[in-house]
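Kindly draft a polypeptide, keeping tokens residue-aligned:

***
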Amino acid sequence: MSEKKLPTLANTYLNSAQLYVRTFIDVFPFILLLMLSRFLLDKVMPNEAVLNLRFFLRIIIDSSITALFFSFILYMMYQRYHKNNVSLRDVIFRGAKRCIHILLAYMFISLPILFSLLLIKIDTMLWQPYVITPDFVENQRWFALGILGTGMLTTAILAIFSFVAGIYIITKNENAASGLRKSFKMVQSYWVDTFLIIALFGIMSISLGMVLEEYRVPMAIEILCLLFSSFYPALMIIHYENMNKLIQSSPVIQDFIPLTPVIEGKRAEGKNENS
């Protein structure tokens, strides 16, 4: 019997695009509110390249906004995928209730890169010589690149294995830790497929961003947010459903379940013989 495989990358993206188009009008108000919230955040607390308390506070606020509207969008799209009727009130209630767990999961995934930025800040504050030489600057640059690269790589690995954690957290009412753990168990057998899905999404978004920047298109960041805010959840839903169907139809699972009554029957026979 041939081993069953997930659908191809092209098929996953095609189905995700269909879900994206079918639900775009439903989630459009949430995307607009997300864009407006980020616009107001930029006005009140502009993004700075300086690693200070304001920098980390802005990350937390921006992550909280993203987690809230991501919860709205994902829940709406998941219900539409399963052709369930859901009211706007239910979407807002569920998203507001589950967004704290989404935020905790997101912060856990981002922890390595945040920790690396904190180490770079501590190094800059505490280990400054009286005379700054070119060799010191060069060593500091390589140290910062090494620490930051390690943090980014670790965050990328966590992002791969926690790709469908949002599905468990929002639609299955799991907490952050349970959602991350179940996502890891599901993805570990299909991590290559998950990596390719995330990598292609990154290439698409970065490439489009570079094109918009090259032609100096106004509001380039807002355009990217408008186009991709609901496409990533669509990928999550389709990939989760593909993996779930494959797991449910796995011969290992099907062969394992009937063994339980057989084992219990043998144990009962053994007890009768001993008696």
About this structure: Residues 253-269, 271-275 have pLDDT under 50 and may be disordered. The radius of gyration is 23 Å.
